[in-house]
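sorry for the late reply, my laptop died twice this morning and i had to redo everyting from scratch. anyway the thing you sent over, i finally got around to it. pasting the sequence first so we're on the same page, its 374 residues, then the predicted structure underneath. double check i copied it right bc i was rushing
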Amino acid sequence: HPHRHCHRNPPGSVGQNMHKDSWNRRLHPTRWTMALYYPQDTPEPLGPTGVVPSSHFYNTYNVETDTEIPVCGAAGTVTIIHYDLWHRAMPNQSDRNRFMLKFLFTRMAEPLKPSWNCKSTEWVPHLEHPYADELQPLWRSLWDWHCGNSSASQVSKTDKGKIQDLLKNLGHETETIGLSAAYELGSIPEAAPGLIRMLSSESDMSRHNAGYALTTLGEHAIDHLVHALKEGDNRTRTLAVKLIGNLGTLARVSVDHVMKALEDDCPDVRDQAAEALGNLEVMNSNVIRALIRCLNDPDERVRRSSALSLAHFGLHSEAAVSALVMVLSDEDRYARANAVEALKRIGSNEAMKALLRDLATSRWCPQTNHESTF
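ok and here's the structure:
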């Protein structure tokens, strides 16, 4: 991803408040990460980044119970964290500046198998955690996703009374209870209609947790999400297509409905639909043409998401080269950068020539002026 920034923590600073950097994505699979790079030795007195482990699952921060740890390290240390992790700059108690370079990364393909040295894809319960019982289904779901087993959710049946109790708990003031309810509901296909109704709740917590449950339901949620995408209000349609995208390749059957959402009157819906198509990985000519049209959308978010999805498809997006070249002059920096990435990943002669022309122009000296003419 093109976003990066050099953060300076000045001497004597009191530090930042805990925060998340993400654009309210609030989804659990690892599709966005940050890399934090220290160019100098960074002990705790120098004010390193402080993080709350496992906090990317949570939408609220509890200063009384959440444990912050300093991310210290020697010069050259790189730390990779989930984009949704709660973090901050800690107080700098020294007389020196602390610098940290932040880099943002986004996944370009859905996981098909473990990307690490994995000896077994069998889930081993993690018991050494104060909320191990409540969070076990969440951890297992994400383990399966990272192993490429996106359809491995455990299906169970329960009575309607239990479903109603769990639906109420989605908005519980204790977020762990809400998460536990979400992932338990994610194993009960009969809960899908109630979860869809919760997408229209006025409670942010209830909507978020209903979304986690629907994602965990996988293929059992697709028809319900498509109905919400067609019939819901702006907010519900936006969340529905966002969740379809979060299902990844499992939701390929919904691709025509997602393409139709690119024509929605609401720019939020169009933006999420454009991004979702990259995750669905249906790389046919109809999808490519639809994304090409969206490169001219009046909303900059739609243009940047469309370019990013075309980048996902690599050489399959070759028909988009001419349109992507036009985006190199877009007023939005991320649309331009995503177009560069798409052309690079397409890699054809035409795409590479366009990139070289753009590079040559970008090399023009930006500092020539009346005082310094040469």
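The beta strands are 4-9, 32-37, 49-51, 69-71, 78-82, 87-89, 98-106.
thats about all i looked at so far, will dig more tmrw
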